[in-house]
Amino acid sequence: MTVDPRDELVVHLPALRAFAISLTRNGSVADDMVQDTVVKAWTNIDKFEPGTNMRAWLFTILRNTFYSSRRKAKREVSDVDGIFTENMAEKPAHDGHLQMTDFRTAFAKLPDEQRETLILVGASGFSYEEAAEMCNVAVGTIKSRANRGRKRLAELMHLDADGPVELTDKATVAVVASNGKSAF
Amino acid sequence: MSNDTPSEKARQQIDANLKRVFREQEQVELPDRLKDLLAQLKASEEGGKS
Questions:
Q1: Could you give the CA distance from residue A149 to residue A151 in angstroms, rounded to a whole number?
Q2: What residues in A contact B18, CB-CB < 8 Å?
Q3: Domain regions of chain A by residue span
Q4: Tens digit of pLDDT for each residue in B12-44?
């Protein structure tokens, strides 16, 4: 019996969807993109090299799908539903929760390339080299995107001031208010 | 801070947040159409073979 690598696809679906949502910032567009990616992977499974990282392979297919559809669209998606920020935007029950809402809002403001890079190297544990290969750019480009993204987040979150952000009731009100409006 | 890289402490906080956001998103249940997709692909292939 040989192992069919397609059986492994299911394991990566939650991460693939999370990556798609972070790229598209729109739940239904993300699901379309995951569906396209899975169909492409299924039909091109012979191009997957067993023993290599399937998650990296799937993420690469997904990001290629994303950028080619973005090029085709040639316009900004206007009906962004902000799913990545709104998931947590309702009831800021405690400080950790609040800070996450703030963080999601800040993250959603970054350019696509920086969000993508930070998800790959900051959140998913890919090395700079792996991310560079997946994005088809130089390692230095990935490092620079990651640095710029982290720097911007630090500014938006005021992390380089003095220690962690003070979270007060006033801040809670401000965050809830800002999330009530369009996040973008 | 005016240099190109955030402080090490800020970087660690940002990456911890990134991981948490990503992990939470991963834990959201998949929509049915994605859950059913692989079964459908498998079924259509088996249907094609027989």
A1: 5
A2: 107, 118-119, 122-123
A3: 1-81, 92-184
A4: 989 999 999 999 999 999 999 999 999 999 998
